[in-house]
Amino acid sequence: MHHTCVGKKGGTALECLSPAKIAELTTASGERKVGLSFRRLAVLGVLAGAYIAFGAEAYLLVLSDTAVFLGFGLSRILGGLVFSVGLILVVLAGAELFTGNSLIALSACCHRSSWRGVLRNWVLAYFFNMVGAVLVALLIFGARQYMLGDGSIGVAALRLAATKVSLPFWTAFFRGILCNWLVCLAVWMATGAMDTAGKVLAIIPPVTVFVASGFEHSVANMFFVPLGLFLKRVPSVVAAAGSVPGFQQLTWVRGFLLGNLLPVTLGNLVGGVLFVAVPYWLAYARSTENP
Q1: Transmembrane helix: present as a keyword of the record (predicted)?
Q2: I need a surface site. Which of 29, 113, 115, 205 has the fewest CB within 10 A?
């Protein structure tokens, strides 16, 4: 069941579970997640949205001025590293994240859960992720975090939100696929890690790559875009940002919900289900099903 992954720890090789065992655990986990009560799913969904928002807020800190010192590429890598905190909190502290829960499709593929149950989990996790992410956006706004760095945080947040809502539909969709392919791989590998350090190390590289590459994460955008919408009403931030491409498209319905969240969410589902859950079902879980 176990095999050596990388390096040494305390004189013994670090071990992780085999992909086949990860598939087995992910299937069982999906079965449990589908059976969660409304109350537990609501609470853990709000927490997941909040945790991702914390990582996103840290990303804004890096985004605000690091490129001046490190250049574009390295600043994006650093931003990805700090954003990883969000998924680390989800996995280690325990929460129900819509994007990571794309993997519970594996339990339905194995006939251990119903697709109706999977859909219920997705819908509730998604809604409560939004509640948690928008809540943190409101708290960050209320705490006037946007004034940090002489207002550079607010400018970065406003520009990022405007950029996201002005993406063409198919661009946002494909970036959503690429994002959740990597996010679900991070969750998959963390499932196979046998200790806390291993789980953290499994999460950081895929998340760093997706963030540095500018791929689109629906739950992160539930923080980024609402925060930008709040800041749009602050004259000092708007003035400091100057001419912002996409500023006029920064609206709640047409810009946020329809222009960004819809294509990104669809892309996230395709990335997690068709590029991670289904391939590993075909490779490992399907062969173990009863005929």
Answers
A1: yes
A2: 115
